[in-house]
Structures are given as C-alpha cells and as structure tokens.
Amino acid sequence: MQIPPKYYLTSEIIDLLTKIEANRLHINSLQISGPIRNRIERVSLLKSSLFSARIEGNPLTLDEIETTTDDVRKKEVKNILRAITYINTQIKPGDTITSKTLQQVHRLVIESLSPKAGRWRSEVSGIFNQVGVAVYLPPPPAEVSDLVNSLVDFVNSKKEANSLVCALIAHLVFEKIHPFLDGNGRVGRLLMLVINHSRDWTFPVLVPVEEYIDEHKEGYYYHLDRGYQDIAGYLTYMLEAFLASTERLRIEITELINKTPLPVSPRQEEIYQIVKDNRTTSFDFIRRRFLKVPERTLRYDLKKLIDKKLLRKIGQTRGTYYQVIE
C-alpha cells in the first residue's frame, strides 16, 4: 500500500483551496462577540458530533439527542463530542501526531461501546455494502501498525505544505488502512481536525463539514471507495464539502453579527438561543451548559425570558420544558 498515494493538484482543486482560504481569512477577521461565538461553537460541536454519527447509520436528529431513550445511539454522539473537545484542548500547533494520538481519539469515540477501544484490529476485516457483499478488504492485521506509522510519518513530514490537502489525503489513507475493528469513519474524520490543529489551520469556531457529508453521503462513500484510483475526484469532492461548510458558517456568523440584539442580558440571550436551537429544552439541559452559574440565577433568567414573552414554560416540576415563542 503506497503512503501517500500519488496525487497532483488540478486547477479546480487549487481554485477550491483558494476560495476556502479566503473564507477562513474572512471569518477569522470578523469581530465576533462572546455570546455569538459561544452559540455558534455550541451548535457546530453538536452538528459535527451528530452528523458524524449519522454518516455511520445513527438515525438521531438534532431534536432527539437529549430526549431519546436509545442510550447507545446517544452515547455514540456524546463520545464524538468528547473526542472533539479533547482535540480542541489538547492538540496544539506544532504537536507531533503519533499512533498513540489516533488510539486515544478512538478510545474516546468507542468508550463503553466496544471492549476494543484504542486497540488495533487483530482480525481480518472487510467493508460490506447493504446486501452484504464485500466491497473492500483492508490490509491484514499484521500490517496495520506499520501502515499507521507510515501515515503519521507522512503527516509529520510536512511534505504536503497545505494543511487541508494533507488532512484529506490522511483521511483517505486512514480509511484504506481501516486500523480498528469499528469506528474508523468517525476517527478518520476526526483525524482531519487533529492535523489542522497541529498545523494551526483553524477557524474561530468548528466547521461542521460532517453535515454536508451526511447530506451527500452517497458521493462521500463513492469517492472514498475510488480514492486511490481517482485521487483528484476525491480531493475535489471533499474540498467542495469544506467550501460549502465554510460558506454556511460565514453566512451564519454574519447574520448573527448584524442581527438586532434581544432586550436581555448576554447570558439570558445565550439561554434563549439554547432553547431555540433545541426546540424543546429542559432546565437540567440548560443547567449543564452553565455549571458555574447558581441554579437560582438560571431560574431567574428563565423567568425574565418568560416575562418578556420570549419563552414559554410547559409542564410542572420535573416535567418542565421551555420553548421559544415565535
């Protein structure tokens, strides 16, 4: 298995990279207030986690994450969220990426879902289509460790100067190695975030590219499958995904900056946005977002929002939920 595969940057790829970088520079130049940044980051984190799980077959929607009784599906999303938080806080510019980095990310993603969290697969594996036919047979287990080491050597070598291109190539190679028994897709997409953090190629908030991929899942799997045969097609598809996602983020931030603020305090506005983003929200959910704020203060904030007819209260005591008044 050749690592990295032979590739070149077409004029279309260079054009996409230029547009993405222009969006990144523009977004980084915006004066984003604390409440707006917190709101967008919260939603982006949730989207990135949820849609990464959905790509792999998790059926949950944004509205169902907190209300579902399917603990396994909920755990899949929450684990990805924890892994993203780990990357955002622990991976620093200039950090060397190692095989242990990938194992730690996998450990967080699969925790309590598999007894083999953080361990390379020790058995022959395969990728099957919907009718059970093997469409790809990864390298045998004995080769996994050496192949992963070759992959991280490529990433750390800086042979590919463009961070995003390096991240996309690494994602493709990782999926072809298929080093774990389960969770390869989720970890492979998180690897792109790891690489961009280590190379200091970041945005002020997370870009949830997984939302676009989930919406265009058929194309994603098609280009992953043919990635080594048509590297330009794979890079073009993934860059189109990143461009569309950065465009969404740019528009969302701009609209929020230009929006007339609500006649409430910054924390109350943030509570309002949490309820709006989640449609129906319990007090316990709000309290978990403001662990340093006393419960009495949060209840006061909610009362103020109700008095201003921005929120409505539904139910009593433990069954209480809050909704936005449109």
Tell me about this structure.
With 326 residues, the protein is mostly helical. The chain folds into two domains: 11-258, Fido-like domain (Fic-like fold, Orthogonal Bundle); 266-324, Arc Repressor Mutant, subunit A. Helix content is 60%, strand content 5%. It has helices at residues 11-29, 34-55, 71-90, 99-110, 141-157, 163-177, 184-198, 209-215, 217-225, 231-258, 266-278, 283-289, 295-307; strands at 127-128, 134-136, 280-282, 311-314, 321-324. Helix 9 (217-225) packs antiparallel against helix 10 (231-258). The mean pLDDT is 93. GO terms for molecular function: ATP binding. Residues 97-240 form the Fido domain.
Looking at CATH, the homologous superfamily of the largest domain is Fido-like domain
Mean pLDDT: 93
Distance between the termini: 56 Å
CATH 2nd-level architecture of the largest domain? Orthogonal Bundle
The percentage helix is 55-70%
Total number of distinct structural domains:
2
Summarize the main sheet.
Answer: 3 strands, antiparallel
Backbone structural class: mainly alpha
What is the strand arrangement across the widest sheet?
3-5-4
* Uncertain runs: none
Strand content: under 5%
CA-based shape: globular
